[in-house]
């Protein structure tokens, strides 16, 4: 198992967000974490990443208990990819990615040849080698997201956590970024990504993990889990789950919106 969470509970002050949750994620799987706004997806990620202290339970990454690990030790186990954002800093794409190698060097040492080669390889792997000298503030949202993924790859961990990697991206960039993300599982990466789009899970995920009321509502293959009842329970909206292309693909159609047309 790549990630194992056992009886995890977490509260902000007296408000409990996660209640006794347990799940495990297999190596080389892409898992979509679904759940309504404010349910605790980012809180779960912050617990797994070791950013929040004071949780109850056990978190194992690659069978290593993460409790008490330093930031440097955590960075060797797991990488976090935030949403791409507008930025006023204008580091080059190359330098942005190079920052991901700091877990292998001390903060004050200058990255060497090995680190620069890792950056070149990550940029090529994600098809953005041609952007390396461009400013991070002067590339598109999709290119910025791929740059942030490259920054995680040079960390040389095999477990990646992504917070809505396609938020703010246009449709074409959503698909391009997700195709790259999916292809990383073929290189041995395990990926947990939060998403608000169940259809993305049908297209790209090996598994769905759903959070509701501080608990795991369901875990399993997208076809097994994403049904009319599931979407209704999770998001309080009525959809019809349609099968397309001999059931190679399914999509959620919000039928209440159709009736109003
Ligand atoms: N630092 C904090 N202190 C107190 N409460 C917090 C803190 N961070 C988040 N919360 C609350 O905890 C709950 C879970 O927040 P979290 O950000 O984990 O949800 P989420 O599922 O990631 O939401 P979204 O889909 O909107 O990004 C929310 O009610 C939020 O307001």
From TrEMBL:
Q: Does the keyword Transport apply?
A: yes
Q: Which Gene3D superfamilies match?
A: P-loop containing nucleotide triphosphate hydrolases (3.40.50.300)
Example GO molecular function term? ATP binding
Q: Which UniProt keywords apply?
A: ATP-binding, Nucleotide-binding, Transport
Name the chain's protein. Answer: ABC transporter ATP-binding protein
Q: What PANTHER family does the entry give? A: IRON COMPOUNDS ABC TRANSPORTER, ATP-BINDING PROTEIN, METAL TRANSPORT SYSTEM ATP-BINDING PROTEIN TM_0124-RELATED
Q: Which InterPro entries would you find in this protein's record?
A: AAA+_ATPase, ABC_transporter-like_ATP-bd, Metal_Ion_Import_ABC, P-loop_NTPase
Query: Is this entry keyworded Transmembrane helix?
Result: no
Question: Mind giving the lineage of the organism this protein is from?
Answer: Bacteria, Bacillati, Bacillota, Clostridia, Lachnospirales
Q: What's the superkingdom here?
A: Bacteria
